[in-house]
Amino acid sequence: MERRTIGAAALAVGAVGLGCMPMSWAYSSSRQRGEESVRAVHRALDLGSTLLDTADMYGPFTNELLVGRVLKERRQDAFVSTKVGLLVGEQHIVANGRPGYVKRACDASLRRLQTDVIDLYQLHRADPEVPVEETWGAMAELVQAGKVRALGLCAVGARGGRRSGTRLHDGTIRQLRRVQQVFPVSAVQAELSVWSPEALETLLPWCEARGVGFLSAMPLGNGFLTGTLTPGQGFEPDDVRARHPRFTAEMMAANQPIVVGLRRIAARHGDGVTPAQVALAWVLAQGRHVVAVPGAKQERWVTENAGAEGLRLTAEDLAEVAELPRARGSWD
Prior knowledge:
Strand order of the largest sheet: 3-4-5-8-9-10-11-12
Strand content: 15-25%
Number of strands: 12
Number of helices: 11
């Protein structure tokens, strides 16, 4: 698989990574099977999808434990990315950016992941009670201590939380400017997909201009862009899509033209090419500093996703994607 470089630290990873979250968090728990997920991680590494993206809050903690089972055997094959800064309670999630907590959380992640170094340590969310420079400074000390190789920041902008007249990622860019004064940012992780292209406006150019890697979260639109979901199929209560404004039966039906368009492009590239691969290839076409991180928990999906790296979209394909209808949600 093609290798892409992340940030000033020049960390090389496969162009398509593996988002490990669905294996133990946020999606239907009845379909989470540990052994099946372990096989999926092994398959990703076999195919060159070296970036394994997890977080201490996923589970919480169980996702890192699962990834650690594979790292114990294949640490040299993997690029490990995990996150810090969010705590999971009974019915809520809170931020904790206190320096002492960050250092303890890193040590705990290292134990769960069964490794002595984290390749990319990302700040999941800034703590509103702690200056982000203090949190980032503690993370920088972890680099100096040899526990972490590079630092990343997850985008903060919620789709529905924008003030009038602001762009989606203005808050993230303000944070990036602040933390860059403390220690270099190697990567930014934010949603980027055919149906959520907002990062193209300001965030992606900001990263490209500064040599910062961009990790595309949810590049398959929470599974919608794969074309395998049926409008009105319903989701289990613990599945994030059960509350997502684009996954009501009405909106899933309204957004079908997007999938139809991806299928049309896939058909031009031959038998076996899927809408998901077109969606991932579109993400990879946005820049050499972009790495797609689709979530998956089965070997067949990992294999399909990795195959997108070899798909080269034409100028006609990209123009057709640009003309696809804007994704709709229940707020529209």
